[in-house]
Amino acid sequence: MLIDQIKKDLINFQKEKRPIEVSSLRMLLSSIVNKEKQKRLKLSSNYSNEELDLKSKLEDQEILEVIFSEAKKRKDAIEEFKKAKRQDLVEKEERELNTLQKYLPEELDEEEIKKIVKEIIEEKKIIDMKQIGLVMKEALIRTKGLADGKKINTIAKELLK
Q1: What is the pLDDT of residue 89?
Q2: pLDDT at residue 5, rounded to an integer
Q3: Which string of DSSP letters, residue by residue, matches the chain?
Q4: Percent of the residues in the chain that have a pLDDT greater than 90, as a whole number
Q5: In whole numbers, what is the pLDDT of the chain averaged over residues?
Q6: Which residues are CB-neighbours of 53 under 8 A, at least 6 positions away?
Q7: Beta-carbon neighbour count of residue 66 at 10 Å?
Q8: Could you tell me the residue ranges of all domains in the chain?
Q9: CB atoms within 10 A of CB 13
Q10: Cα 28 vs. chain centroid, distance in angstroms?
Q11: Crossing angle of helices 60-83/2-15, nearest 10°?
Q12: pLDDT by residue (tens digit) across 1-31?
């Protein structure tokens, strides 16, 4: 399971004295635990404690969603730090992002995203920019985190011009 790999890597990074990687994996594990607590709270009225322990554990797909979320936070922070001309913080965030990306599947390239967006436009018979929200919603569902929302939006705007 993915969580086991993350914990194993955390121990290795601690042994290798790599503080940025240790910090980013601890933050990730904390986010995973928080997500499990949220899931447990939602399920608490339907199950006994023993069942709840099993049901509240996150599946690999749910863990991937947490990792995507954490990676997105890092990407956003990198953008902001670049605007503020804080290269030291940009480098730190990039290293954290690289650590997280080891657990993510490869992102789709631009051509694959274009193909998906074109399919959606044709299927839904979308003709103008007013319906870009429908395109975005469906594209995000179909790509399941394998493509950046900004990239999808840029491509959708290009195709709907």
Answers
A1: 95
A2: 96
A3: -HHHHHHHHHHHHHHTT-HHHHHHHHHHHHHHHHHHHHHHHHHTTTS-HHHHHHHTSPPHHHHHHHHHHHHHHHHHHHHHHHHTT-HHHHHHHHHHHHHHHTTSPPPPPHHHHHHHHHHHHHHHT--SGGGHHHHHHHHHHHHTTSS-HHHHHHHHHHHH-
A4: 57
A5: 91
A6: none
A7: 21
A8: 2-101, 110-160
A9: 19
A10: 11
A11: 50
A12: 899 999 999 999 999 999 999 999 999 999 9
**Domain 110-160, CATH among 1.20.120, 3.30.1360, 3.30.1490, 1.10.10:** 1.10.10
Integer-rounded Cα Rg, in Å, for the chain is 19
Closest to 96 (Cα-Cα) out of 1, 8, 18, 3: 18
**Residue 53 pLDDT level (bands cut at 50, 70, 90):** confident
Whole-model pTM?
Answer: 0.78
Topology annotation, domain 2-101 = Hypothetical Protein Yqey; Chain: A; domain1 (1.10.1510)
Of 132, 140, 137, 126, residue with least CA distance to 156: 132
- pLDDT of 145 above 80: no
